[in-house]
Design a protein that fits this description.
By secondary structure, the protein is of the alpha+beta class. The chain has one domain: Immunoglobulin-like. Helices cover about 20% and strands about 45% of the residues. It is built from 3 helices and 8 strands; from the N terminus they run E-E-E-E-E-H-H-E-H-E-E. The strands form 2 sheets. Strands 4-1-8-7 form a 4-stranded antiparallel sheet. The protein has a 4-stranded antiparallel sheet with strand order 3-2-5-6.
Length: about 180
């Protein structure tokens, strides 16, 4: 799984976001693979190569599936090492089956309880989050066709407080590629 690109259509903060990314992948209930990255100051209109990779994953049974969670965070309030470490630990916890997050408001609440201080007050906060699941059949069919799937999706972040920018808007490109 590859988190290819991040396009900032609208930053959460007034002029730019201090962006941190995280991605986790897990087959069934195995130990999740987690990767995080600090991208730094990202301005409106920035199209950044993200190059976050996780995998390969083995799916051997028709009941197997691949679960992926992606998360983007604007945080200028804390040191980079604190944010990356807490983002990684939070993603590990979010990969547990008991956490199914349906929207950013719920994600904000859950993340705040799992990792106090990760989501800063003020103009920072979640810019995007998503949960994706790919079945064994879907991934098998992918490998029989051309071995690669690219997906682009636009995300709108949580509302920003007064004095900050509009809610963020990001376009994310993800790819899944078969390895034989």
């Amino acid at each position: 799984m590859l988190f290819d690109k991040t396009l900032v259509n609208i930053p959460r903060s007034p002029t730019s976001d201090i962006l941190y990314l995280g991605m986790g992948g897990q087959t069934n209930n195995e130990v999740p693979l987690i990767v995080t990255k600090y991208l730094g100051s990202i301005r409106d209109g920035s199209n950044t190569n993200t190059n976050l990779k996780i995998g390969p994953f083995s799916l051997n049974d028709e009941n197997d599936s691949l679960k992926v969670k992606i998360l983007g965070l604007d945080n200028e309030a804390n040191p980079t090492s604190f944010v990356l470490s807490n983002l990684r630990n939070t993603l590990i916890q979010l990969m547990e089956p008991s956490y199914s997050i349906s929207d950013l408001a719920q994600a904000t609440s859950v993340i705040s309880s799992l990792s106090p201080g990760l989501l800063p007050r003020g103009c920072g906060g979640l810019t995007f989050m998503d949960e994706l699941e790919f079945s064994f059949d879907f991934l098998r069919n992918l490998t029989s066709v051309n071995g690669k799937l690219a997906q682009e999706k636009m995300y709108i972040g949580t509302p920003s407080p007064p004095g900050c920018g509009a809610p963020s808007q990001y376009t994310i490109k993800l790819s899944i590629e078969s390895h034989t």
